[in-house]
Amino acid sequence: MLQTTQYANNTTAERADSLQCASARPLLTVDKVTLRYKTPNLLITATEDVSFSVEQSDRFVLLGPSGCGKSTLLKAVGGYMAPVSGAIHINGRPVKKPGADRMMVFQEFDQLLPWKTVLENVMFPLLVARKLPRSEAEERARDYIDKVKLTRAADSYPHTLSGGMKQRVAIARGMAMQPDILLMDEPFAALDALTRRQMQDELLQLWEDTKFTVIFVTHSIAEAIKISNRILLLSPHPGRVKAEVIDVDHARHDDGSAVALERDIHNLLFSEPGHRE
Amino acid sequence: MTNPQIILAADVTTNRPHANVAEIEQKLGALELIWGIGAVRKTVLIIVLAVIWQVYASYLDNPLLFPTLSDTLTTLYDRFADGVLPARIWTTLKVLITGYVAGTVLAGVLTILAINTRIGTDFLETMTAMFNPLPAISLLPLALIWFGLGASSLVFVLIHSVLWAVALNTHAGFLGVSRTLRMVGGNYGLTGLSYVVRILVPAAFPSILTGLKIGWAFAWRTLIAAELVFGVSSGQGGLGWFIFENRNLLDIPAVFAGLLTVIIIGLVVENLVFQTIERHTIQKWGMKE
Ligand SMILES: Nc1ncnc2c1ncn2[C@@H]1O[C@H](COP(=O)(O)OP(=O)(O)OP(=O)(O)O)[C@@H](O)[C@H]1O
Ligand SMILES: [Mg+2]
């Protein structure tokens, strides 16, 4: 059941293979993408030659140690930075600039507009990007605020919320837009263990309801296994694809396959000699 | 060896029921609430200062040098009643508002150009570096040659006093908007002017408000000073002229009444207008630095 496709030497044949078994056209394709940051005296290669594709209703996880370019990859998919080489396509169209078809839940806590209440924050993109009428936007916003269990805080301003509550507002805002892909950058990283578990369960519950497509960045192996159906393992300096894990959702806790998978992934990620973490 | 135990809060035995349950929200006392209002504390201070003035001036008993508060207030009332002061105030405020609004609008245009184009940034930076250290009042002689005696010279000087302060602060505020918020704006597909108006302006509002306050303070002082130098034009002077005129007539209580009016208008704008704006915006949003 469980498969780990290892890109041993990155042969294109292998990759073409793994693309083929998918449906006719994936929702998102990332093809041999290299991403660099230009600083005044350095050229930092964040990711090199990374390829993957995401299908409709995938819960796709980017997993890797800190600094392997997960956020950078997500920003490229979001359209915030252009690849040095390679191409990113969504629905067959190249990604050129940010857009509401790829809603982003950022890693940072300051992503809510402080001058808007929780409700207004969730409504705002529905009004300006989706051009929904006010009443409809409000109805949908309230619906998703209920889903992330923030009904009582709907009229509060973000500075009065806890970190976890802010993150939930950002998730509600992203999901209310019903984007083609929801991009989530370690949305639960700053939460305490208990809230984190609750949020993971809620996310899965919401996915059962609407079957949205999501790319989820994390550096917790356990979280990746719990949430995803596919995992892309990245190695650091620069970020390269190390392996892809498919059918993750078939791992189960009662027969120990989840634990075994976690150990396998751990060994894979930390097998590299000289790797410091 | 004893095993670890978990003792539930509900099982903790206390004499009073719910002793371990405290209320989360507690109302503050009425006095504490009133004292918490800045305006109340400041009013008390002003009253104390007024009493000291009255007592000291009565003791001095020299209305030509230092009239009492009651004399000043009586003159203030008389000059209001005979319509002289309201006319002077109106003249001053008309010029002030014209200059302030024009300066702010110009500052807005300059900063929007500055964040969208590199040459705009260079222009703004060079101009603010050059003109910000120059006191606006020093342009008055030149303005008088260019625009002649009249309101347009004053407006020119006022624009100069407002423009650079507001532009500098607004630009700094725009640059200080966090990368995340800018990316959120991009995510919603906002570009150009709607991006500036819907994301940058509110996100930079603390800085913009600071700029507006500084601009106001510069403008108010510059205008009164200019009117003192400039005197009267086309038959109707402003507050500065009122003070100057009454000094020449040795009507010192009226001079004090004029000064008091200048102070009161300044206080009203700074403490009522700007603080009300502040309370309804950056304080409510938790953005106050
Ligand atoms: N704005 C930037 N300027 C220059 N270099 C950057 C910038 N942002 C990231 N980098 C570099 O790019 C590399 C990848 O960073 P990235 O933020 O994508 O890592 P990450 O996988 O998201 O890490 P984490 O799990 O800690 O969030 C790092 O080596 C980092 O130093
Ligand atoms: Mg990151």
From TrEMBL, chain A:
<keyword id="KW-0547">Nucleotide-binding</keyword>
<protein>
    <submittedName>
        <fullName>NitT/TauT family transport system ATP-binding protein</fullName>
    </submittedName>
</protein>
<dbReference type="InterPro" id="IPR050166">
    <property type="entry name" value="ABC_transporter_ATP-bind"/>
</dbReference>
<dbReference type="GO" id="GO:0005524">
    <property type="term" value="F:ATP binding"/>
</dbReference>
<dbReference type="InterPro" id="IPR003439">
    <property type="entry name" value="ABC_transporter-like_ATP-bd"/>
</dbReference>
<comment type="similarity">
    <text>Belongs to the ABC transporter superfamily.</text>
</comment>
<dbReference type="Pfam" id="PF00005">
    <property type="entry name" value="ABC_tran"/>
</dbReference>
<dbReference type="InterPro" id="IPR027417">
    <property type="entry name" value="P-loop_NTPase"/>
</dbReference>
<dbReference type="InterPro" id="IPR003593">
    <property type="entry name" value="AAA+_ATPase"/>
</dbReference>
<feature type="domain" description="ABC transporter">
    <location>
        <begin position="28"/>
        <end position="261"/>
    </location>
</feature>
<keyword id="KW-0067">ATP-binding</keyword>
<dbReference type="GO" id="GO:0016887">
    <property type="term" value="F:ATP hydrolysis activity"/>
</dbReference>
<dbReference type="InterPro" id="IPR017871">
    <property type="entry name" value="ABC_transporter-like_CS"/>
</dbReference>
<keyword id="KW-0813">Transport</keyword>
From TrEMBL, chain B:
<feature type="transmembrane region" description="Helical">
    <location>
        <begin position="33"/>
        <end position="56"/>
    </location>
</feature>
<feature type="transmembrane region" description="Helical">
    <location>
        <begin position="188"/>
        <end position="212"/>
    </location>
</feature>
<keyword id="KW-1133">Transmembrane helix</keyword>
<keyword id="KW-0472">Membrane</keyword>
<feature type="domain" description="ABC transmembrane type-1">
    <location>
        <begin position="89"/>
        <end position="273"/>
    </location>
</feature>
<keyword id="KW-0813">Transport</keyword>
<dbReference type="Pfam" id="PF00528">
    <property type="entry name" value="BPD_transp_1"/>
</dbReference>
<keyword id="KW-1003">Cell membrane</keyword>
<dbReference type="GO" id="GO:0005886">
    <property type="term" value="C:plasma membrane"/>
</dbReference>
<feature type="transmembrane region" description="Helical">
    <location>
        <begin position="250"/>
        <end position="274"/>
    </location>
</feature>
<feature type="transmembrane region" description="Helical">
    <location>
        <begin position="95"/>
        <end position="115"/>
    </location>
</feature>
<comment type="similarity">
    <text>Belongs to the binding-protein-dependent transport system permease family.</text>
</comment>
<dbReference type="InterPro" id="IPR000515">
    <property type="entry name" value="MetI-like"/>
</dbReference>
<dbReference type="GO" id="GO:0055085">
    <property type="term" value="P:transmembrane transport"/>
</dbReference>
<keyword id="KW-0812">Transmembrane</keyword>
<dbReference type="InterPro" id="IPR035906">
    <property type="entry name" value="MetI-like_sf"/>
</dbReference>
<feature type="transmembrane region" description="Helical">
    <location>
        <begin position="136"/>
        <end position="168"/>
    </location>
</feature>
<protein>
    <submittedName>
        <fullName>NitT/TauT family transport system permease protein</fullName>
    </submittedName>
</protein>
